[in-house]
Amino acid sequence: xxxxxxxxxxxxxxxxxxxxxxxxxxxxxxxxxxxxxxxxxxxxxxxxxxxxxxxxxxxxxxxxxxxxxxxxxxxxxxxxxxxxx
Length: 85
What we know:
Layout: H1 3-6, E1 11-15, H2 20-36, E2 40-44, H3 49-55, E3 61-64, E4 67-71, H4 76-84
Parallel strand pairs: 1-2
Antiparallel strand pairs: 1-3, 3-4
Helix pairs in contact: 2-4
């Protein structure tokens, strides 16, 4: 992820290329952010050793304001609650 491009995004998706659950996560985040006006950005877990160690087996992982709010099969409600809270 380009730090400048994602600096103002509250929602971060940690994903991996070829991940079918990550494709599902895109749909969830598109719906959530369309209803809230927020934007989301993504980062490839395999782009850094630190991301691999922290999230490697959990992808996709969604973070809102730096706090993990779900992994694998993302649900809209916890993400919406975090954005509203």
